[in-house]
Amino acid sequence: MPSSASHHTNKFIHGLYVITDTKLMNEENIIAKVSQALKGGAKIVQYRDKVSSEQTKLKLATQLQQLCKSYQAWFIVNDDIHLAKEVNADGVHIGKDDDDIYKARQLLGDNAIIGVSCYNDLNRALQMQDLGANYVAFGRFFNSKTKPNAPQAALTTLHQAKQSLHIPIVAIGGVTAENAQSLIDSGADSVAVIQGVFAAKDIQAESQKIQQLFPTA
Ligand SMILES: Cc1ncc(COP(=O)(O)OP(=O)(O)O)c(N)n1
Ligand SMILES: Cc1ncsc1CCOP(=O)(O)O
Ligand SMILES: [Mg+2]
Fold first, then answer.
1. CA dihedral defined by 160, 176, 167, 3, rounded to 10 degrees?
2. Strands 91-94 and 74-78
3. N or C: where does the chain have the smaller number of CB atoms within 10 Å of the terminal CB?
4. What is the ipTM of this complex?
């Protein structure tokens, strides 16, 4: 994998994508926990924090960016395009309530990875692909403790997405080492996980179990 986003191509969104959570980690242990996931083989890390102060978010995002760089993993900021810019993240993840893709691209530039939530909506994914999204995410596929009310997505949507999209596809929502294979078999290039990794006793081992499910290029 290239060490800088300037060499980024879509094919590198592949494998285990872990997302931080403010209930499962705190300022004191977030770096240790994400390090364990990276040691287990995680390829992409998203900083998702809807509660901390701007100052704390800036500090943690800066630390995570450096950590990901040392593992040659992509670092993505959730929701906040300005924070992504400020810490020189590899990219941003945006959903329907966040800044739109035009604004994100304008601020972050051509080399940024912009991922967009598409829930269970293939038409939205096709539109976002046309607008320059670097990956799309579908979900939630399973029961999610983190976001129980996220809209449900169907495995058939993944199959259809695989046939009609040329950008990478991420699957999210209640993903575990036990159910990730079904998503990969249905067309997911990557699975995004919170509880399935960070609520595990052994974060590194659980990450490894999931990452091993992906065929190596
Ligand atoms: C990889 C990935 N997929 C989906 C989401 C959800 O984004 P969004 O719909 O904006 O909801 P919040 O995460 O902001 O609550 C995601 N964050 N990452
Ligand atoms: C952010 C988000 N969007 C859809 S489900 C979800 C939460 C994923 O967390 P978990 O892996 O714990 O279900
Ligand atoms: Mg969002």
1. -170
2. parallel
3. C
4. 0.99
Q: Which residues have their alpha-adjacent CB atom under 5 A from ion ligand 3?
A: 79, 95, 98
What whole-number distance in Å separates Cα of residue 208 and Cα of residue 211? 5
3-state class of 84 per DSSP?
helix
Q: How far apart are CA 180 and CA 176, in angstroms?
A: 6
Domains of the chain, earliest start first: 14-211 (3.20.20.70)
Rg, the chain, Cα only: 16
Which two three-digit tokens encode residue 162? 């695989």
Distance 155 CA to ligand 3 centre (A): 22
pLDDT at 217: 55
Q: Answer whether 208 contacts ligand 2 (Cβ < 6 A).
A: no
Measure the CA–CA gap between 33 and 206, rounded to whole angstroms.
12
> Relative to the alpha carbon of 80, which ligand is closest?
3
Q: Is 53 exposed, middle or buried (0-12, 13-18, 19+ CB in 10 A)?
A: exposed
Q: Kindly list the catalytic residues.
A: 48, 117, 147
pTM of the predicted protein model? 0.95
pLDDT, tens digit (0-9, with 9 covering 90-100), for 109-119: 999 999 999 99
**Pairing outcome for strands 15-19 and 44-47:** parallel
